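Protocol step 4 of 6: record predicted structures for both targets in the notebook before any analysis. Target 1:
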Amino acid sequence: MPAMVKPPNLLYGVEEKPPSWVVWLLGVQHIGIIAIGLIFPVVVVQEMGGGVADAARMVSVSMIAAGIGVMAQAWGRGPVGSGYLCPQLCGPSFLGASILAAKTGGLSLVFGMTALVGLFEMAFSRLVRRLRVLFPAEVTGLIVMMVGISVTGLAMRMFFGARAASPELREAEILVAVATLAAMIGMNVWSRGRLRLFCILIGMGLGYGLSFLAGVLTPAHLERVLDGAWLASPLAGHPGWSFEGALAAPFLIAILCSTLKSVGDLTTCQKINDPDWKRPDLKRIGDGIMANSFGVISAGLLGGMGQSASSANVGLSVATGATSRVIAYAIGGLLFVLAFCPKLATVFAIMPAPVMGATLIFALSFMVVAGIQIIMSRMLDARKTFVVGIAMIVGIGVDVAPEIFHTFPHWLQPVFHSSLSAATLLAILLNLVFRVGIASKAGVELAPGRTRRNMCSPSCSARAACGARARR
């Protein structure tokens, strides 16, 4: 990976090596966010009527797959890895398809279909560099922004302590969430140096303590930690693999949405690490998608849930100013340890909901703003305005009025399962439609006496006055 200048807002750039103790603490901080995604395999097992043992095993194996994915992403050599710190977690894009597979054929069908579409993502990674027309700045920026918006509902429910079975608000949980978020923001905005580096970790620690004092975290939760085994293998008892052609469509849509989301996340990684960033480097993005496919295939083969690039962790890197890829290896190592040590993994499994909500809101704030910045990095004409505006309105509409989309044909349901997938696919389609009629040739007319050396650029606002005129 070529050397690049470190942006002034970063404490540790992508190629820098922080002190070892800093690296490991930052790794723990990132795992705090990754742990939030571990709720998805639990939901899949519960929906199929499985037991606690199946859920625990699937969670632990998902950690192993996430560890493989984050280290492959940071590798950045040959065709594997972008060379950036871009962790993976259990992808919400896979949730709907995985639940459908679990109800249809059990966990073996979930694992088989996950491994299969991981191979599709691997193949797609080799085509990305030839598809630049699909990923202009307005589309990639919209994807990044919608990543944050799509998780808003989950983050707000956790922040305010609302639950489906009991939606009323709980004052104790709100106080914990507000205090946790205030601590994170305060240390990030008004502190410098290492306090900023560990603002999430310190905020989480405060949140755990306040949760215990407020009764949100009970002695029963602590007993779960104490009763957990120090060592156990999650690889035993694998149910095998099975496949079902009828489930190909929902899983392909899931992996496509996950892959396009990764394009946005990796674009953000490029932008925050390069002060001279102009446009996405699709070659390195393709290598990054290849690394993501390692996480997905590993999850399918070993018995976990499909993995996606974690936008919240990318946002955390921006917030703390630490994007060193060395941190990725600490994250991977810690995930392996947690997968084989249930006692330590339980510490993250009992994370109070208000602490999760505060952490998500903090990290995703940076993703939403990063998406807006990418969109506005190019001048928006009428065509681009409609691409961004219509896709965003429909995407948000999926969350605001989901009942409308429930009446759509069955084969379209996976597309409108989330605001992210709907906005992403619609933006790509509209981008292709609105390209119709754009001239593919450009010419320059020079007034007498003008030469190429003193000619204004086509983008110069004063080109009419100096005699150079460009037409497109």
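Target 2:
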Amino acid sequence: MIHMFNRALLFQDSDSKACADVWSTLKKNHIEYEMKTISNHTSFGRNLHYKQSMSIGGGGMGGTPFGDTMNYVYAIYVKKSDMALAKKVCGL
């Protein structure tokens, strides 16, 4: 079991495809991992994006040039004891 005292950060990126490549490789090689998804917005920012996508007529409101986009950072952790093997099989 992975917990915060025996884990190490293996990979961190905002590209979901790159992250999926890493965790699928870990899974294929039977290496235990934990993934965290971190938003770059506060709850206020998430609510603002949600409200911008709603309108009275039921359709969505398009993005505005003044709004920023929702971005996520994906972090993959493995056990410290598995770090060398995980780096090797993932090519990191």
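Step 5 preliminary note on target 2. Residues 16-28 form the longest helix (13 residues). Residues 43 and 49 are 10 Å apart (CA to CA).
Proceed to step 6 after PI sign-off.
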